[in-house]
Amino acid sequence: MDETILVGDDLMTGPPSPVVPPEIASHVLQGVNLCDGILRNLFLCLQINDIEPFCQEEIALYKECAERRDKEIRKRLQDSEFKLGSSMPLDEAKGRASQLEAEVTSLERRLILASGVEGIEGFRQRWSLHGRLTDSKNRLQSLKHGIDSRKKG
């Protein structure tokens, strides 16, 4: 039975970490384990050993922590957008929705352009843009649900 050797690219198997808007970052990130200690240990291991096969435990620990962190952040982002949609002044909520729609459109266009980039660089661009696009669409949907819940309530 072959043993799998993890490398840095294995950290790119799921979606990229979500981008947290500065205006809601303090609320969204409060109490979340950002995995910075584990990441420091991984970098230290790579610095000492120079190659990934000697840092398997650190890579696995960071990957697990980052997946947990990103899942929690995504949930909190959507919860925050819903709360904003249901509680901020209606004009501001609609303005925020328009801003998110523009962001989604921009990311869709950039993803189309990135489809022409070949090799690993093209993969990384598409991977990053697809993750950001998915997160932005989910945030927009949550914001709109918040706005709609206000109209029903």
From TrEMBL:
Family matches, as Pfam families: DUF7803
Residue ranges constituting the DUF7803 domain according to the UniProt record: 1-152
InterPro entries the UniProt entry points to: DUF7803
Top-level lineage group: Eukaryota
Protein name: DUF7803 domain-containing protein
Source organism (scientific name): Sphenostylis stenocarpa
